[in-house]
Protein: Glycosyl transferase
Organism: Streptomyces paromomycinus
Amino acid sequence: MKLSVVVPCYDEEEVIGHFDEEIRVVLGQLAVEYELCYVDDGSTDGTLHRIRTLAQQHRPTTRYLSFSRNFGKEAAMLAGLKEASGDAVILMDADLQHPPQLIEKMLDLYQLGHDQVIAKRSRDGDKPLRSVCSRLYYRAVNKWVDVELTDGVGDFRLLSRTAVDALVSLPEYNRFSKGLFSWIGFDTVTFDYRNARREGGRTKWCFGALVNYGIDGMISFNSRPLRVAIYTGLSLAALAAAYALWIVGAAVAGGITAPGYVTLVAIIVGLGGLQMVMLGLIGEYIGRIYYETKRRPHFLVKETNGTAPTHTPTAR
Ligand code: UDP
Ligand code: MG
């Protein structure tokens, strides 16, 4: 069989060399044919230059693509999956946070017949605030979203040819991989590993990016947030009706006194805020429709060292 390893890289000049050494040692010990597929996601440092050199040094086993600009990790993974020709494909980060030593275990599980082998990381070494936020987020999101998202489960996984073909066939422009992996289903197995620190360089996830990613996760998969908006509106209307009844009762019993200025202001401002949030929510969905209708490609390739060699998939 043939194994493809897809590695999205964005400004990874510092670590890419070390990553390449480590992964080759591991892959060399496996009894399978392999290929490494680097996707340079429009890096602004010397990443592309390094990848080019690596591809020349290890000619038949290394391929690369380079994007015309930064299109994001989702696009880079998609490009890698399209390019990969193996019977199984492993997605890995370039910063050595995904230990190459786990590949052997993944392959063993693949040989047992699983289509998705997921490595689930612990939150060791994460900032405490980030892990608490993540936990709360996953608890909330699983109530809202149709597909199951699990804390610690990321993109580090092995996918069988069947699963890769399924993923690549999904045409949507807004790709939220965590959800897509879960949506395609197939026979899935998960194992745990201890999180490792980044080898060098820096993470591209600032707090704002994480919040945006979180919102994406909530609305990429269904229209349930809109349903929640309807229920919120109905509950508020019921509250308002009860309050009106109470006021009328009080007026009948005690005559009309007219305090309540603070209540009024609070209600108006509160409802105004809520309406803005709901409008924003609707806007998000419309925005997505807008992007989907443009049918733009997910990425543009400016450089590559050739297309996939033809490879006939073999049975496991
Ligand atoms: N990455 C990418 N495009 C981007 C951002 C990140 O291809 O726009 C790659 C990056 O080079 C790395 C992987 O995605 O190989 C994970 O990125 P990072 O380590 O910043 O994320 P974290 O591990 O902190 O979640
Ligand atoms: Mg990382």
Summary: The chain has two domains: 2-207, 223-294. The pocket of uridine-5'-diphosphate (ligand 1) is lined by residues 8-10, 12, 41, 70, 72-73, 76, 93-95, 97, 203-205 (CB under 6 Å).
